[in-house]
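Contributing new complexes? Match this layout with calcium ion.
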Amino acid sequence: MRLLIAEDDPMLGAGLRRALQRAGYTVDLAVTGDEAMAATRAQAYELILLDLGLPNISGIEALKALRGRRDATPVIIVTARDRPEQKVEGLDAGADDYVVKPFDLDELLARIRAHIRRGEQRTSDALSAHGVSVDLAARTVTVAGEAVAVTAKEFKVLATLMRRMGQFVAKEELEGALYDDTAEVESNTIEVAVYGLRRKLGSGLIVTARGLGYTIPKDA
Ligand code: CA
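Output block (do not edit by hand):
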């Protein structure tokens, strides 16, 4: 589970990152709005914690841009701005939740778990293309209604590509979906998983383009 923290306060950002890592998440930290935007374009996250007062691009602008790309990643705004109209602006811009600093860490962790669960349910029936369906919660794959057995690595690659349907995903990013940053990745892991998926699910499902990576094209 990979989360993004967009927070320019170094103490708070580092503290949150440690707490979330202790809770078992892989965490990226962005300290400007630009960095947050770049991170969300390069990488799929299970959830984003978003400060509103960020350098370069404000949290609200970053959130609007994210939703403008039809990216439905759950977003919790974490901010000191507690006026009702500020909450309304954040929620209207597409945030899923709004937490005011200073916050209780256990409550924030519970909200993160709840939104990740909800996000998985929301996307579970949407992950379907070319006759192939992926159920993220049940971790099952079906082709034309028939269950197909896939390996854990194949499942993660397929789920990542389904979530980003129509976009190319770089091999390095698929590797990142399989492993934490620290783990060794065998150089042909993704090729092996894609080969297995094509054999089991049909050769046309996953398209490769040199220099861009892999994609599942949108259904016509
Ligand atoms: Ca700030």
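Reviewers usually confirm one structural detail per submission. For this one: Residues 8-9, 51, 53-54 surround calcium ion (CB under 6 Å).
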